[in-house]
Amino acid sequence: MSADKSRTKALDLGLLTLRTAVGATLFAHGTQKLAGWFNGPGIDGTAAGMDAMGFKPAKLSAVTAGVSEAAGGLVALGAGTRVASAAGAAAMLAAADVHRPNGFFSQNGGLEFPAVLGVASAALALTGPGRYSVDGLLGHRLEGERVGVLALAGAAVGAAGVLYRRKQAVAAAAAA
Q: How far apart are CA 136 and CA 78, in angstroms?
């Protein structure tokens, strides 16, 4: 096997490993929010939590966060990877912002965990899934580098809008 083919195979295995870990983690968290799986709060509990954190409207925010994270199942399979990864990155951007006041480290309630998941998701949106994926089986016909960049840009704009609305709601609640 040539050095280039060996490197490509290792890259594809690395992307498979990253996709599986990130996608499965996001899927588990999303289904906690949406369906109460894995001892999660379900949609009503998630909406109550979103309301307490200043996300308005709370139920729509809960559904959006849950679906964005549950799309991690697609990431794990490598199906629609660039768009699904961008959705996960946006959800983790919002989660990291919520945890930002607690500093970096997770043990202090910080942004470490969502930031790492978000950056890994963004990397997958930019790189794509690799050969060992549903997208790869389809010949990567349904995705491309531009799709990843555009999906990530759209997700970032959407997350920024949600965070702006949250900041306004938190400020209004503090003033009241």
A: 8
Specify the pTM: 0.93
CB count, 10 Å around CB of 10? 10
CA–CA gap between residue 18 and residue 170 (Å, rounded): 35
Burial class (CB in 10 A: 0-12, 13-18, 19+), 82: buried
As a whole number of angstroms, the distance between CA 39 and CA 94 comes to: 22
Return the SS3 of 144.
Answer: coil
HSE-up of residue 103 (Cα within 13 Å, Cβ side): 5
Q: What is the pLDDT of residues 106-115, one digit of tens each?
A: 999 999 999 9
Tokens of 24: 């499965």
The dihedral sign for the CA sequence 54, 55, 59, 62: negative
Per-residue pLDDT tens digits for 58-81: 999 999 999 999 999 999 999 999
Dig out the tokens for 43 from the structure: 């949609």
Report pLDDT digits (tens) over 116-134: 999 999 999 999 999 999 9
H-assigned helices in the chain: 3-35, 42-53, 58-70, 72-77, 81-99, 112-127, 134-137, 145-175
User: Measured on CA atoms in the order 116, 121, 124, 130, is the torsion positive or negative?
Assistant: positive
Which sign does the torsion angle of CA 85, 60, 167, 46 carry?
A: negative
